[in-house]
Amino acid sequence: MTTASESSSHNGTAHNGTAIPRGQGGDALSVAAREIFAERGYHGTSIRDIAKRAGLSLSALYFWHSSKQELFAGLMEDSVTDYVRACDSALRDCGDDPVERLRAIVRATVDYRVRRRVESTIAAREIRNLEPEHAQRLAELRASATRLFQDIIDEGVRRGAFRCEHPAEARRAIQAACNAIPQWYDPEGDAGPAELAERYVAIALRIVGHES
Amino acid sequence: MTTASESSSHNGTAHNGTAIPRGQGGDALSVAAREIFAERGYHGTSIRDIAKRAGLSLSALYFWHSSKQELFAGLMEDSVTDYVRACDSALRDCGDDPVERLRAIVRATVDYRVRRRVESTIAAREIRNLEPEHAQRLAELRASATRLFQDIIDEGVRRGAFRCEHPAEARRAIQAACNAIPQWYDPEGDAGPAELAERYVAIALRIVGHES
Amino acid sequence: MTTASESSSHNGTAHNGTAIPRGQGGDALSVAAREIFAERGYHGTSIRDIAKRAGLSLSALYFWHSSKQELFAGLMEDSVTDYVRACDSALRDCGDDPVERLRAIVRATVDYRVRRRVESTIAAREIRNLEPEHAQRLAELRASATRLFQDIIDEGVRRGAFRCEHPAEARRAIQAACNAIPQWYDPEGDAGPAELAERYVAIALRIVGHES
Amino acid sequence: MTTASESSSHNGTAHNGTAIPRGQGGDALSVAAREIFAERGYHGTSIRDIAKRAGLSLSALYFWHSSKQELFAGLMEDSVTDYVRACDSALRDCGDDPVERLRAIVRATVDYRVRRRVESTIAAREIRNLEPEHAQRLAELRASATRLFQDIIDEGVRRGAFRCEHPAEARRAIQAACNAIPQWYDPEGDAGPAELAERYVAIALRIVGHES
DNA sequence: AATGAATGAGTTTTCATTCAT
DNA sequence: CATGAATGAAAACTCATTCAT
Fold first, then answer.
1. CA distance B190 to chain A (A)
2. Mean pLDDT for the stretch of residues B155-169
3. Which of the listed residues A132, C141, C170, D212 has the most CB atoms within 10 Å of its CB?
4. Distance F8 C1' – D125 CA (angstroms)
5. CATH 1.10.357.10 for the D67-207 domain, yes or no
6. Which CATH code fits C10-66?
7. Where is the composition biased (Polar residues) (chains A, B, C, D) (predicted)?
């Protein structure tokens, strides 16, 4: 399974070109930034706070990242990239039965939203704070995830596995339900990630009108 | 039908005592604030921008509202209050059949999210920016709306109208789907509010396992 | 004679549109800015220092001027505009004899450099710190002053009043000599402004090869 | 002819004791510094930019120079020293006729201003940014150049070769005219350095009232 | 001879807020 | 009702400089 540390969060203008350095400083900053951005949103977060939580000075932050925006955009991109990768890999491991494929992508989505709650929270609410260039790349990544969902549903309808008059609405409903998980999920709660995934698989199959 | 102007958005400290004034100034400010808060979020919005869009001076804003927080909280409360009221009134007008009641509350929700897109966007993302006192009142209002949904679903399950192993999950999925509407809804799109409501009613009934 | 106070130094973005306000604040800032910019140059001057010398807070400065650059550019433009105006008016008051005209423009120039030493110092050294838009307007103003000199000299040569093989070089030498005055002029020194002007008139006439 | 590399630009605290090293690093830094200081002035120049243009790291700069000020002061001193040396040597090669001597020093000055445009630009505008100790040494060097001019003119007047009521003014005008050359000189222009020198010799002789 | 990582003081600018009028 | 003038705190970011390696 794809994990956060596979992707680079330090490749902005401040330190570009060379191989990704992974000193303690850089990582600590990324971790701190993720948390605080998730808690308070882009504008609610001051880079002073990020540096402080990372145990570094403000200026050290600027050694690793060329601006607040670049730091933020790096986080967002890493997160969405990882999510899309997780979906891709989940779909690669299963056949072409739409039911199985829907199961796989919903499981991957729930899993990601639960295990990477912080980034998911950010990604859900803060896209508008990306400057145009970054925003566009993000939008494309998002669109590709959406397409994965839509293609599966459309194919299921075509094959008669799903009975569904408004497949776009069905897709939106499923994605919205999954994406909302980080807003309420409590790791101490009654359902663990696996159980939760099965519940959302069931909901998704109902939404697309699959007779079980 | 409940409308925004029925509720008070000007009851802060700034203008205490006298009867609620409803001049152009106050309203223009509320409208401007709603728009800009929705566009840029709480911290991304400056009180100067609001005053400018309302065509007033900064000081005029302070005549009508005692602080940025109070202006913001007023907006949020108005919005959620209106929504809860809309749900209440929709439910009051229908019998006690859970299917009918679920239909009614989903219709009311979709209708509200479509017609009051701006506030809905704010309400969905910006609660964390409310100071504790305001946040709590909001949370209570939200909880009461959630309870309306949950009660209907639970009752439907009890009566055998809904077949649903995890009613709380079902409720979350339905609410999440409806609440996401403002993120993508396009007034020029293929489905008008009424048609959209029916689609989401259908989705909701599937989620709760109602045999149609 | 044109004086500084005739021109507006407060018409930037911060407070544009309305009639020029001339509260104490705005003037104090302009005066302070002139002095400190002259002493330390554009980059060597912090707007904190300007505000402090004006007896205002940093934020008050931003009420009057939208940025350091705009404040600086305003000063520069005022100064060069005034100078050009002084030359124009001096030339308007004398006939078309090139000798008289050269006398007039040199007198006006020396006079301006002596009486407005501070701005002259800035104008001489700090144009490169103007952002392109401002720089261009300044360059045009300067060019118009240069043209005044050049036209007079060329006309003198044509009429045989001046004997001068390289009129452009002559013009540059005259202007350079006059413009250097603020660098060494001491108000307590042996020559007052009027006497100084006559000395530079004599030098200028020699440079252009006028037989006296 | 005296060239820049004859003079020491690396004698600060950073590399004390050992013989002056003249590796590529040190030279690249001096060249870069000269250019950028000339373009943007002392305060407008960041030590980072200098290192970058020299293709070195910031820390490498600190190996060669103990501080920004020392690097800057070194440049200035080198430049003025070279200029004074150039004047001295030009005067040593000619007799004691004031006319010849004025010719020689004007030629040397124009030559220097044209060939070392960059340093001349700095020297003309940035003395005020030197800290007192450095400033004083520079002032003395400058004064010695000024004295060379003044002595020649005074002697010419005494001998009746020059007819000149205000010799100090004449000297200032001549120096100002020469010093302004870097501000407008275009190497691609109509007059090469030698031709230009002759033009300024002619101007200087006119200023001091020499009958040709 | 040179570098990467870090810092503290400083920069310009924006913010919510106040108050006399 | 409304404004113009002002403020203090904090924002993002840059700077010259240091130090272990």
1. 11
2. 97
3. C170
4. 37
5. yes
6. 1.10.10.60
7. 1-16
The answer on pLDDT for B14 being more than 70 is: no
Least confident of B27-31, B195-199, D6-10: D6-10
Question: Residue D180: its chain C contacts at CB < 8 A?
Answer: 172, 175-176, 179-180
**Cβ A44–B209 below 8 Å, yes or no?**
no
- A chain contacts of residue B166, beta-carbon cutoff 8 Å: 199
CB-based contact D173 C177, cutoff 8 Å:
yes
Give per-residue pLDDT as tens, D100-155: 999 999 999 999 999 999 999 998 889 999 999 899 999 999 999 999 999 999 99
Instruction: Identify the CATH assignment for A8-66 out of 3.90.78.10, 1.20.1080.10, 1.20.120.420, 1.10.10.60.
Output: 1.10.10.60
Q: Does D206 sit within 8 Å of C206, measured CB to CB?
A: yes
Q: Work out if B23's Cβ lies within 7 angstroms of strand F.
A: yes
Would you state the structure tokens that stand for residue D57, as one six-digit string? Answer: 């790291």
Q: Report angle CA B67, B73, B74 to the nearest 5 degrees.
A: 90
Residue A151 CA from chain centroid, whole number: 19
Q: Considering only A35-39, A67-71, A135-139, C16-20, which range has the smallest mean pLDDT?
A: C16-20
D58: Cβ under 7 Å from strand E? Answer: yes
Residues 6+ apart with CB under 8 A from D174: D106, D149, D203, D204, D207, D208
What are A145-170's pLDDT values in tens digits? Answer: 999 999 999 999 999 999 999 999 99
In the predicted model, is pLDDT for residue A57 greater than 70? yes
- Torsion angle of the four alpha carbons B73, B78, B84, B88, in this order, in degrees rounded to the nearest 10: 150
Please name the chains neighbouring C, where neighbouring means 3+ C-beta pairs under 8 angstroms. D
CATH code for the domain defined by C68-212: 1.10.357.10
From the Cβ of D69, is strand F under 7 Å away? Answer: yes
Amino acid at A93: D
Evaluate whether C32 touches C24 at the Cβ level (below 8 Å): no
* pLDDT band with cut points at 50, 70 and 90 for residue D25: low
Nearest to B129 among A44, A175, A209 (CB): A44
Query: Which of C165, C170, C180 is facing D176, going by the closest CB pair?
Result: C180
C185 beta carbon to strand E: under 7 Å: no
Contact A203 B203 (CB under 8 A): no
CATH superfamily of A73-212: Tetracycline Repressor, domain 2 (1.10.357.10)
The half-sphere exposure of B40 on its side-chain side, counting CA atoms within 13 A, is: 13
Q: In this complex, is the C-beta atom of A170 within 8 Å of any C-beta atom belonging to chain B?
A: yes
CB B126 within 8 A of CB B190: no
Domain B70-207 fold = Tetracycline Repressor; domain 2 (1.10.357)
Nearest Cβ partner of D176 from C39, C170, C176?
C176
**CA D74, CA D131: separation in Å to the nearest integer?**
12
Residue A11 has pLDDT above 60, yes or no: no
Domain boundaries, chain B: 12-66, 70-207
Q: Number of CB pairs < 8 Å for A and B?
A: 73
Query: Which pTM was predicted?
Result: 0.86
Nearest CB among A176, A199, A206 relative to B209 is that of A206
Instruction: Pinpoint the alpha helices (H) of chain C.
Output: 24-44, 47-54, 58-64, 68-92, 98-115, 117-125, 132-159, 167-179, 181-184, 193-207
Looking at domain B12-66, its CATH architecture is: Orthogonal Bundle (1.10)
pLDDT of amino acid D47: 96
Which of B's residues 58-117 have CB atoms within 7 A of nucleic strand E?
58-59, 62, 66-69
pLDDT single digits (tens) B19-77: 334 456 678 899 999 999 999 999 999 999 999 999 999 999 999 999 999 999 999 99
- Amino acid identity at A124: A
Distance CA A201, CA A152 (A): 14
